[in-house]
Amino acid sequence: QMPGTARHDREMAIQAKRNLSKTTDPVERLRLQCLARGSAGIKGLSRVFRIMDDDNSRTLDFKEFVKGLNDYAMMIDKEEAQEIFRIFDKDGSGTIDFDEFLITLRPPMSNARKEIIMQAFRKLDKTGDGVITIEDLRGVYNAKHHPKYQNGDWTEDQVFRAFLDNFDSPYDKDGKVTTEEFMNYYAGVSASIDTDVYFIVMMKNAWKL
């Protein structure tokens, strides 16, 4: 876990629970319910939807949408679910594209925040192929300082893998982190940090940018 992110994560989750009682906007309520589970909450919901998308169409109809929300134990009634579905089903086709759904559900971030997140991503993505892997990390992340490496519990690769697992989709850890997964993770972290300046300083320190 990166310096400070665990604490931000907790603060953000507490804040989200608090705001839930105040908001009536159905999309915001769903967003806050996800964030109440921490930075990976939105990623977790996307994973549930992915499992349900049997035909790999990357779309969901209303029945699948409701089942996904229930499987993820979201407290949402049918009327509210219908309202959310309508908002996302922009063309009225009766299905929603879940990449679009997730982007809308992600807490909004300023361009300044997105840019610094992408800088960190590019620094880690040594090979420049848009995916961070163990190979990439060998060049940029020193595993030898890790306590579990020092006491012989973990190999260098295990340290790298544990590091990638932070950003990887929680229920589908494949040891590869895409731009989208990295962004989703930091959208969660970002939700707990009020000012762009502070967020940027945190990222610069964490990644030596």
From TrEMBL:
<dbReference type="InterPro" id="IPR051581">
    <property type="entry name" value="Ca-bind"/>
</dbReference>
<dbReference type="Pfam" id="PF13499">
    <property type="entry name" value="EF-hand_7"/>
</dbReference>
<feature type="domain" description="EF-hand">
    <location>
        <begin position="76"/>
        <end position="111"/>
    </location>
</feature>
<dbReference type="InterPro" id="IPR002048">
    <property type="entry name" value="EF_hand_dom"/>
</dbReference>
<dbReference type="GO" id="GO:0005509">
    <property type="term" value="F:calcium ion binding"/>
</dbReference>
<keyword id="KW-0106">Calcium</keyword>
<feature type="domain" description="EF-hand">
    <location>
        <begin position="112"/>
        <end position="147"/>
    </location>
</feature>
<dbReference type="InterPro" id="IPR018247">
    <property type="entry name" value="EF_Hand_1_Ca_BS"/>
</dbReference>
<feature type="domain" description="EF-hand">
    <location>
        <begin position="40"/>
        <end position="75"/>
    </location>
</feature>
<keyword id="KW-0479">Metal-binding</keyword>
<keyword id="KW-0677">Repeat</keyword>
<protein>
    <submittedName>
        <fullName>CAPSL protein</fullName>
    </submittedName>
</protein>
<dbReference type="InterPro" id="IPR011992">
    <property type="entry name" value="EF-hand-dom_pair"/>
</dbReference>
